[in-house]
What does this fold into?
Amino acid sequence: MEGLELISFQIISAVGTARSMYVEAIGLAKEGKFEEARQMIDEGEKVFVEGHHAHAQLIQQEAAGDHVNFHLLLMHAEDQLMSAEAFKTIASEFVDLYEKISNL
It folds into this structure.
């Protein structure tokens, strides 16, 4: 495996791991472990950035005039990237919400 397939799988792997960490953060917040939840979101962000960098490679390649063929695998990778980004926002909101509820 090389080229576009490899980059697509790098994106899928990294952002999938990040999304799992964001979901885990929600579970930690539900248990009242707010600091651990925020740390999990921070760790997820570090992994997410790896996928984002792989995606940025493709954008830079296209911008340099080197056409990137679009494949279903790349579309899936981009979908996973956007999904993980949304999960981060949702996880952060849930952590804040659970913390507010616990302080009532």
